[in-house]
Design brief:
single chain, alpha/beta, Rossmann fold, 12 helices
Amino acid sequence: MDMLTQESYKSDIKPIFCPGCGDYGVDAALTKAFVDLQIDPDNTVVVSGIGCSSSLPHDLKTYGIHGIHGRALPVAEGVKLANRNLNVIAVGGDGDGYGIGAGHFVHAIRRNIDITYIVMNNEIYGLTTGQASPTSMIGQKTKSTPFGVIERPINPLALALASGATYVARGFSGDPMHLAKLIGGGMKHAGFSLIDVQSPCVSFNKLNTYDWFRKRVYKLEDSGYNPNDIMKAYEKALEFDMDPNKFPIGVFYETTSPEYEDLDVTLKAGTAVGWNAPKKEEVANVLNEYTTEYA
């Protein structure tokens, strides 16, 4: 097969993000990760929910599913459990993943299904033009909080660690080359991988801007950090809460653990798409058995 390039993964549909949106950087980083790993687009599925970021599957020449709000992960889980040979990537925003989809987020993590989840976290509801999201900072004034946010923001990394995540990373869309490495690492990881991406919303979040992040962001790997210590991972995940001038990015935690697909007794029989469908008479016999027994 010929060497795949960025053009191998791009569809004819152009992104609809606002000019300067951080999601362009995520789009570029994901495409670069595909190229670096030479991922087969015909063996790849990108699933999204609802939000600005969730239009991403349209831009790619892979299989794509643009689902409903907060439901990217259960759809992605279904795809992976039906055919574990596929590369499955779920994408969405902070409202989609950490708000209405928060329950799915926790349970997909604890199952350790082999999915890469990329969350474009811009601390605001961008698609609906600027309401507070689950990650908006305390005091932030938005359309829905004119006097400032009074709720504590969710810490996605700490929540992921507490839920049993086996790969936890955070990137910055202003550094797509570094982000591509984090996404590639997540795709190579066996099990659930989270890449939380600080992706500035230039239209509706005037607080968490590119300049705001660049003054605070530093790479964990530059400090000699070891991502195999979960207690250190918690410490780094909470660092910004303790010191608002330090915002680490990189791989916070990585470990090995059995995948859901390896533990489920049904899936041990092989990939679901390879199973032979039962014959009509077999279905009729089962139905007849239960009808007779409980009549």
